[in-house]
Specification:
Blueprint: H1 12-34, H2 40-66, E1 72-77, H3 78-82, E2 91-97, H4 103-118, E3 123-128, H5 130-139, H6 141-146, E4 151-155, H7 157-170, H8 174-194, H9 213-226, H10 241-265, H11 274-283, H12 294-321, E5 334-336, E6 341-344, E7 347-350, H13 355-358, H14 362-372, E8 376-377, H15 379-387, H16 394-397, H17 400-410, H18 415-424, H19 427-431, H20 433-436, H21 452-465, H22 475-482, H23 487-496, H24 507-522, H25 526-537, H26 541-548, H27 554-564, H28 567-582, H29 591-610, H30 618-633, H31 639-645, H32 651-656, H33 659-672, E9 677-684, E10 689-697, H34 702-712, E11 715-724, E12 729-738, H35 747-761, H36 767-773, H37 778-781, E13 790-794, E14 802-809, H38 814-824, E15 828-837, E16 840-848, H39 858-872
Parallel strand pairs: 2-3, 7-8
Antiparallel strand pairs: 1-2, 1-4, 5-6, 6-7, 9-10, 10-12, 11-12, 11-15, 13-14, 14-16, 15-16
Helix pairs in contact: 1-2, 1-4, 2-4, 2-10, 5-7, 8-9, 9-12, 10-12, 11-12, 14-17, 14-18, 17-23, 18-21, 21-23, 21-28, 23-25, 24-25, 26-29, 27-29, 28-29, 30-33, 34-35, 34-36, 34-38, 38-39
Length: 873
């Protein structure tokens, strides 16, 4: 590294071979140094020096050969110009010439380029006069940007100096400068949106994503542009020494990661995918520790660094663009808020530089005023907060003044925006130290899109949207939220609901253990503290019960209501569940889940309003349902037929289905007659799923057959209710959606499903053959985080069924594989609850044995668990 190579005159092939050999040896040596590990910038600078040496020797050799070295200068641009050339990145060059473009210059550039390209290098090349450079830059922002990273390599140094002077004089002054900065800021915004709109993307782009290396470049370009193309040292009022060190360390870290991606893939690859995350975590020395995977610790470090880059680059730009000219300050209207704060020019400003040291709780007051007056803080106030973070100590955290301001913030408007600003300025994690433990904490799966801290803040944003943009879509929840007497208590619970995730498995219980201390410091009453603690402890209760349990089991609903204890708590739990699930990721919430949550909310509320935790008399309820069914059917079925139907199915069926559904089912059963099967399709548009009711003569493994047909037709099963009449007729009800989460309305697709069902039920086609024909998509083949398989069997959840919980990697035909395994084990499925979390499946089955009994035999239970584990491994 750094060696000077002598490339003497020779033919093209000879020079190409020499350069190839030098690069191969250099890259191998550099890779060894990188993996020690060495600093990321150490490698990029060493690579830059090496390329300088190669280009210098090549340029001299060819210049001498074609007599074209005079009145030209070779100039480096881009990352190469900055001296930060990542391995296998583009080498951007420009040949500057003084007068005319001669045949010798053309020959020089052609020979150089062909040799470099043939050597396998990605080289960008331009040939220009200095005047042309300025004209082009005025018309093209990208070209203008390139002149902020120019670096002299060799040739006529006077030409390079002349270009620098022209750049200063003609490009970065007046209107061109203003336009350039506006374009860079807009470009940054567009780039962030293109690459995910957040630092906390599951598979971030190390260069272009938010918090990536390009954010450092953008900030540097703005600083250089403001200084007429020259770099203004960051120490000169832009960053403190600690901020500079933090930015340098973060940049070095991201350069190391980017280098490693390029070394490993042997090409330009800037996306940190799951496979590389796991590999790099090991290279960086991270190991699995108890409740935290090595890859999660590594990604927490990555997000911490990337977030620091994003925030610090914003700081540099903000401070650089801050107007220092106070000539017109007297014209701007100043409004005093209190002795410490005023608004000036539409921004909140603090009275003196020592306000926060003399009265530390005024830091929290600054955020309260910013929120209540709907004004942002000026740069000086933010800088003073950052400078004085150490005053947020134990005394500050227990200060009634700070606690009152904080609760006022939670009870105000734009709570999410205010808390996000507190988080950005490091005040939130200083005020609630427990929150710092979940800051940048990642869960290595496809379900949890955001880090735990950002998810918690996004959940608050989801709650706030119930007051505005969600009023039409979620009317019930919006009304419930508007009626909450102390919304700040609910919002605090939402902020803290995942606080236990830093402590490992059982985060709800562990979070509930630390919540009282936080509430005490803030100054909450005992009742409010108990409420926050209850919500943190039980924040998964409603979602888990609704998604994974049989809500038609009255005993289960009563136990749920008993745990919640009162209607007010149930309302808050419902709102928290909504906010929590909505904030997990953009594709996590759907109408099916919303329907399940709402159903359990109403069922729980019915029990609580009834004032008794005893089961309702089923006989009287079924009698009312039967009479209503007779009314609905009227002349379509005689009373005897209805009476007979009510003897053919168990009590739970009639409690699980309303009179309208039962009436429809009777019609379907009557239409079976001599047909092999009947399939009825109902579009439940308000809940965004399609309901398929399949009626046929019962055969063992029918559920496996149907689920296989659905898999073969790319149909997702959301839930299933399996009913077998005493006369041997099966009535199975499936809630389904397309692979894209939509209603299944395509007539051709429905006919294909019916055709496949007929073939499978009649025995013409084996369902396994149908499933095997379906090939995984490119997305299915993509490497993803591994989801471990575990199986739990429970005989206490239901009085009637053995409940099997299966959590495993989601895959094509999974439900068919599970159901066929259960069939082969001699088990009959009565209820299936299907849930997917990213790339993990959580499928729950309520089963009985061949005799219609729960399974208690220990050996049989072990066989079921072992067989399922083996088949799903």
């Amino acid at each position: 590294m750094g060696e000077t190579f002598l490339l003497t005159r020779g033919d093209k092939n000879e020079l190409t071979a020499k350069i190839k050999g030098h690069f191969a040896a250099h890259e191998e040596e550099l890779k060894k140094t990188h993996r020690i590990p060495s600093g990321g910038l150490t490698i990029t600078r060493s690579h830059t020096i090496f390329v300088d040496s190669i280009l210098s020797s090549l340029f001299k050799a060819i210049s001498a050969e074609v007599s074209a070295g005079r009145d030209t200068a070779l100039i480096a641009l881009g990352g190469y110009g900055r001296g930060e050339l990542n391995i296998r990145s583009d080498i951007d060059l420009m040949l500057l010439y003084k007068k005319g473009l001669t045949a010798e210059i053309e020959q020089l550039t052609q020979k150089m380029l062909y040799i470099l390209w043939d050597a396998g290098l990605d080289v960008g090349f331009a040939i220009r006069k200095s005047g042309e450079c300025i004209d082009l830059a005025r018309e093209d922002s990208k070209t203008m940007t390139s002149f902020l990273d120019i670096r002299y390599l060799l040739g006529d140094n006077g030409l390079f100096t002349e270009l620098e002077e022209r750049v200063k004089k003609h490009l970065f002054t007046g209107k061109p400068l203003r336009n350039f900065i506006e374009e860079k800021l807009e470009e940054k915004k567009t780039r962030h949106e293109k690459y995910g709109g957040s630092v906390y993307i599951l598979e971030p782009n190390v260069k272009e994503g938010e918090g990536g290396l390009r954010d450092i470049h953008t900030a540097t370009w703005v600083v250089k542009a403001k200084n007429q193309g020259q770099f203004l040292p960051l120490e000169t009022g832009l960053l403190t020494g600690a901020e500079i060190r933090s930015l340098e360390e973060a940049g070095d870290f991201l350069h190391w990661v980017r280098n490693d991606l390029h070394f490993e893939t042997r090409r330009k690859k800037d996306q940190l995918t799951f496979e590389h995350q796991e590999r790099i975590a090991g290279l960086r020395g991270f190991v699995d520790k108890g409740h935290e995977l090595a890859v999660e610790a590594f990604m927490q470090e990555y997000y911490r660094r990337a977030s620091g880059i994003k925030n610090t680059s914003d700081l540099i730009i903000s401070r650089c663009l801050r107007k220092k000219d106070a000539v017109f300050t007297f014209i701007r209207k100043k409004s005093k808020i209190d002795e410490n704060f005023s608004t000036l020019g539409g921004l909140l400003t603090v009275a003196g530089d020592d306000v926060f040291t003399k009265n530390p709780p005024s830091i929290m007051k600054a955020f309260e005023h910013s929120q209540s007056f709907s004004v942002d803080m000026d740069r000086r106030t933010k800088d003073l907060i950052l400078k004085n973070l150490e005053v947020i100590d134990d005394a500050f955290r227990s200060s009634p003044q700070a606690g009152k301001s904080f609760m006022n913030i939670l009870n105000g408007e734009k709570v999410y925006e205010t808390l996000l600003e507190m988080h950005t300025l490091k005040v939130l994690e200083r005020y609630i130290p427990e929150f710092s433990a979940i800051t940048y904490k990642v869960q290595h799966d496809l379900y949890h899109v955001y880090t735990v801290d950002i998810h918690s803040l996004f959940a608050i944003r989801e709650l706030e949207r119930l007051k505005t943009s969600y009023r039409g879509e979620f009317a019930l929840l919006s009304d419930l939220f508007s009626e909450v007497k102390n919304p700040e208590i609910l919002i605090l619970a939402v902020l803290l609901h995942d606080i236990g995730k830093a402590l490992g498995k059982g985060h709800a219980q562990k979070g509930a253990a630390v919540a009282p201390e936080i509430c005490k410091r803030i100054g909450l009453t005992e009742d409010d503290t108990n409420l926050v603690t209850f919500l943190v402890k039980n924040h998964l209760l409603l979602a888990d019960t609704a998604q994974y349990r049989d809500m038609h089991d009255e005993k289960l609903v009563i136990e749920f209501a008993r745990t919640v204890a009162d209607a007010g708590r149930l309302t808050l739990l419902y709102l928290l569940t909504f906010a929590d699930v909505r904030a997990v990721g953009p594709e996590v919430w759907n109408q099916w889940k919303g329907t399940l949550f709402m159903e359990l909310f109403f069922k729980g509320m019915t029990v609580l309003e009834r004032g008794s935790f005893e089961a309702e008399e089923a006989g009287a309820k079924i009698l009312r349902i039967k009479e209503r069914v007779k009314e609905l059917l009227n002349e379509e079925a005689d009373a005897f037929a209805v009476e007979n139907y009510f003897t053919l199915l168990p009590t739970r069926y009639f409690l699980a289905n309303g009179p309208e559904a039962i009436s429809a089912h009777i019609k379907i059963v009557r239409s079976l007659r001599g047909e092999p099967y009947v399939m009825n399709v109902t579009q439940v548009t308000e809940r965004e799923y399609t309901e398929l009711t399949v009626c046929t003569h019962d055969i063992h493994g029918l559920f496996a057959m149907i689920s296989g047909v659905m898999a073969a037709n790319s149909v997702n099963i959301l839930g299933a209710q399996i009913n077998t009449l005493k006369n041997g007729i099966a009535l199975d009800i499936f809630q389904v959606e397309s692979a894209f989460g939509e209603l299944i309305t395509d007539e051709l697709k429905i006919k294909k499903i019916e055709k496949n069902l007929h073939e499978v039920i009649s025995g013409k086609v084996k369902v396994a053959a149908l499933v095997e024909k379906v090939k995984p998509s490119i997305l299915d083949k993509k490497i993803k985080p591994k989801v471990p398989t575990y199986v739990e069997i429970d005989n206490t959840i239901s009085d009637t069924f053995t409940v099997i919980d299966i959590h495993t990697q989601d895959r094509l035909g999974l439900l068919y594989r599970i159901s066929s395994t259960l069939m082969n084990l001699g088990l009959y499925i009565y209820i299936a609850k299907i849930a997917t979390k990213g790339d993990g499946a959580a499928d729950i089955f309520y089963v009985k044995d061949i005799f219609g009994q729960k399974i208690y035999n220990k050996d049989a239970l072990e066989d079921i668990e072992g067989t399922l584990r083996s088949n799903l491994a």
